[in-house]
Amino acid sequence: MSEFLQTVKENLVFLLVSGAIALALFLLAALSERFLLQKRKLPHTKRLTIIAMCSAVAVVLHILDFPLPFLAPEFYKVDFSELPALLCAFYCGPSAGIACEALKIILKLLLKGTSTAFVGDFANFVIGCSLVLPAAAIYHIKKTKASAVWGLAAGTAVMTVFGSIFNGVYLLPKFSQLYGLPLDAIVGMGAGINGSIHSVSTLVIFAVAPLNFLKATVVSILTLLLYKRIQKPLFGKIAL
């Protein structure tokens, strides 16, 4: 009974921490729109429609995730669901991108459930936001192609550094705790791919960081290539 209560407590703590971080991200996005960004009036209905549309595309891309077994353990999977979230954030603002990321995860859980004790889903949301939020905030300060490039470069850097540190400090230990897989076993999976991996920190440096960098770079390039081309037919106005 005590073991059951301990499990319940651990899950509740994880949910509370997840909720607090999600709320902090929404507040940060809202503050950036209020104090830093150009004012832009967008009809509420149109904004909701764009968020819903981008979320629907994002959840499909998220479900179509795939591992890169030559780079990281197979429970680390790559998807390009940040692409529609970035397109949404570039048009509607950072808070819309964060909302798109959140809806994507909710829809994915409803459609597919979780295979990582919800830790992977939470990781996808937070680390995805670490790309979307700075990229959209910088772009909206001055809407030019140069600012889009700088924003995406900053987002890639934040996602690579923050995502890797967050994995090592919180996500991997929490995954080990909730999923019941010892950290040594997780490190061992990495060691089977790269002989330089022998600890959590080296797993983060040689597997997680390159994976985050690769994903952020591909998504950023696709965003630059697609945004101007799809904005007029989908959103109604060219901005880049």
Describe this structure in words.
This protein has 240 residues and is an all-alpha fold. Helix content is 78%, strand content 2%. It contains eight helices and two strands. It has helices at residues 2-35, 44-63, 82-92, 94-112, 119-141, 145-179, 183-191, 200-234, and strands at 66-67, 77-78. A two-stranded antiparallel sheet has the order 1-2. The chain is globular. The chain starts with a helix and ends in a 6-residue tail after the last helix.
The radius of gyration over CA amounts to 18 Å
Mean pLDDT across the residues is 87
Query: Biggest β-sheet, characterized?
Result: 2 strands, antiparallel
| SS strand fraction | under 5%
Write the layout of secondary structure elements.
Elements: H1 2-35, H2 44-63, E1 66-67, E2 77-78, H3 82-92, H4 94-112, H5 119-141, H6 145-179, H7 183-191, H8 200-234
Short description:
This protein is mainly α.
Give keywords.
mainly alpha
